[in-house]
Amino acid sequence: MPIAKLRDSSCSVSRSLSVLGERWTLLILRLAFEGETRFESFRGNLGVAADVLADRLNTLIENGILTRDPYQDAGSRTRYEYHLTPVGRELHVIIAGLQQWGDDHLPRPESPTVVRRRHESDAPVRVAFVDDSGSEVPLDEVEAVRTATYPR
Length: 152
Prior knowledge:
This protein is α+β, with helices and mostly antiparallel strands. The protein has six helices and four strands, in the order H-H-H-H-E-E-H-H-E-E. The radius of gyration is 18 Å and the shape is globular.
């Protein structure tokens, strides 16, 4: 099924993939979380074609994940910076979870390339399931319970 058709799915994972599932999108977001904001910086860091990058950025803008803000360096034409919105910042846990899984299960000698720490204490943090009381729930105690049917 083409990724655009996932948008109308009753499955929230499918709908999320309709926005986030294209190649390069999560890597663009990874760089945005690291502070990158400019088209040429995204392009240079990723080695992605300009038209593909423009398409991915536009999808993120259209879905409220990034904003596009003009800037102009002296003597240059107007260009744009891309900034995470509050909706976009909520994706940090997704990017961190992917990195955490990769560091744990596909390690490289130089891994990890990024560590996440709490601002106040500098203590390391991990992505986890947390219950209503704020306590971490072990993975083997979490179950996915379907509340609606959707095509598989």
